[in-house]
Amino acid sequence: MRDYIVHELQALGIAAAVERQTGFYRESVVAFRGGIVENIVGRIPGSANTKAVMLACHYDSVVEGAGAGDDGHGVAVLLETARALRHQSGLRNDVLLLFTDGEEPDMMGGEAFLSQSRFRQDVGLVLNFDARGTGGPGLMFETSQPDGALIREFARAAPYPRASSFFRDVYERMPSATDFTFFNRKGIPGLNFAFIEGGAFYHTSEDNLARLDVRSLQHQGSYALSLVRNFGGLALPLAPAPNSVYFNIANLLVHYPLAWAPAIEGVLLGCWMLAVFAGRKRGQLRAAGMLRGAAGVAAIIIGTALCGQGYLWLLNKLHLIRNELMFGQEYGRWWLLAAFVAAAGMAAIGLTARLVKRTGRIETMAGAALVQIALAGVLCWKAPAASHLEVAGAVSGMLLFGIFLASPKSRTVWLAGSIAALLPALMLWAPLARHLDAGPGVKVWPVQAFLAAQFLTLAATAFSTAPSLAPTRWAIAAMAVSVVLLSIGLLSAPYGARDPRPSNVFYALDADRHTAFWVSRENTRDPWAAQLLGAHPKHEPFPQISPWWTGQLFWRSPAPELLLPAPELTVLHTSCQNDFRTFDIQARSPRGAPAMIAVFQSDRATEIVSLNGREPSLFESIPRAEVRAQYIDMRAIPGEGMALRVRIRGCGKLRVRLVERSNDIEAALPHQVSPLPSGIMTAWEDDYYNRSVMVTRLLILE
């Protein structure tokens, strides 16, 4: 892939530099990441450069995946954008094309570029393209801060923008990262893009060209070309502007300053109070009725969300959700979700209709509008970037409230007005439900239930009358519909070639004890795994292969011992001064395994000082603390190995656990391991746990 990218850039007349560097950074108090990377950087000169616009993607993939979506599509986007730029008149600013290596093993290519590349000081803005699936619209899901100027230009230049400040808030709370994470931490302004549908195949052997949706590729490409043309003509870096709230209405990106959120909440509350004043003056509203309506609507919404949580708990308890796919993805989950929405929706509609009958339509709607305004106020206070979601519900509630107060005589006017009033909530909540399903999946069904309940209570208040069925019969009808849809979902979601089952097995050899095991992180029951694990694998810790995660449980069965050479650790130099002992060591794999984890432990403080002569990049969010053990995950290990410097407090011993890994289980054990059959795919686990061969040993350095 590296040679292909270089060839394509050179064919376009773009000079390409391959930068071979050591990426190395401290991920946490105890964890370090490092390895050899080969980043590719191309440059298209501008006519009067201020700072360069950099398009970025990564060209590596997980070992077991073809990486068509993650991130082969990004490579295609950058190359095609470069081709288009070479056939137009030059831009004002330079354009950098960065293809990073080592992104999948924890963004080592991005770290290496930012710490060592000769191009790093030239970047004025970065546009990063990645994927967490195989299709769907390209979402602009992360920005640098402050983002006001970026969002203004994005809204002006992108032809089909799909973005929400809510995405940014959610992503910042997730344990995920891309190369953009490092650019952002270094203060480089930019935007991050990805598509997320087809998440079941992310980081698996099914992330291939057959699964990749070319429409998603086109959408990402439209971002790259339009935005590089726009930013390529501006003076960079942009003058900062305060953070924004932004969201889509069809192809229009609405955006306004984040500071406006409290004012919008105040306007909504003021409108509600004026409407209540007018209604009470006309004798249409009673305080007790409005309070009863608000309490009833709030109880229905909260109850529906709690039912969603209970439904999810029940499905897990009954093992109807298999939890074998990534990020809460489930085959046939649309039917499972439809079963819940049908039951909860019918219940919400029925309860709302009865509330309307007892309280009155106008007073119930006054209460519903107040509840929506209150929810918008909560988000405005706790998560202002997401406040627009509840503002949409509040606007719909207020419009319906106003229509009821106006009491139009024409039923057609009333009906059309009520439908139009529901559109603000529908236009924001329906796309959000789609993205939540593609992202966290079944894990956030309670959130989807919460949104559905809000919409249904508004709609039911506007249109429904008291149900003709008695409450008990209404509940039975709701459950019957739910059971039917649930049965369809369970019957329509078998594993097969279209929806393959994930499988996860690897081979582990303990070189000290001369014992070997077939191991899996999952209790897989598919035939391919069962032929190795057997019928009764043990479920227990295996600290020899996961010393950095002592609580991890594995399924394992005995395996034949292969005569594989153990990883080596050579002490090049050691010294003890001022109550600190330093070890200069060389870690290598005689069998050429590309990855190795080294865990260093001492009786007192332990510190990994350098890798291949480089000190690690540090981030302000990681506190400094003395710990007895630290580990480093090393990737792309060359034949000569990796040079490490480790320091311990005191002049005692240093215990080192080495775990090396190669992803060649079929070649190493051809008589025991067959290729994956149709209907089986690799699990989305880290490469360490997918069809790999591990060799571990313990050394004590004195």
Question: Which keywords apply here?
Answer:
18-stranded mixed beta sheet; 17 helices; alpha+beta; globular; 702 residues; two-stranded antiparallel sheet; 22 strands
Task: Tell me about this structure.
With 702 residues, the protein is an alpha+beta fold. It is built from 17 helices and 22 strands. It has an 18-stranded mixed beta sheet that branches. A two-stranded antiparallel sheet has the order 8-9. A hairpin with a 2-residue loop joins strand 8 and strand 9 (252-257). The protein is globular and about 90 Å long. The model has no long low-confidence stretch (mean pLDDT 89).
Give me the Rg, rounded.
29 Å
| Euclidean distance between termini CA atoms | 44 Å
**Mass-distribution shape:** globular
Main sheet attributes: strand count, strand direction, barrel closure: 18 strands, mixed
Low-confidence stretches: none
Average pLDDT confidence is 89
Number of helices: 17
- Kindly estimate the percentage of residues that lie in beta strands according to DSSP: 15-25%
- Structural class of the secondary structure composition? alpha+beta
The quaternary state of the protein chains shown equals single chain
DSSP, total strands: 22
What is the helical fraction, as a range of percent? 40-55%
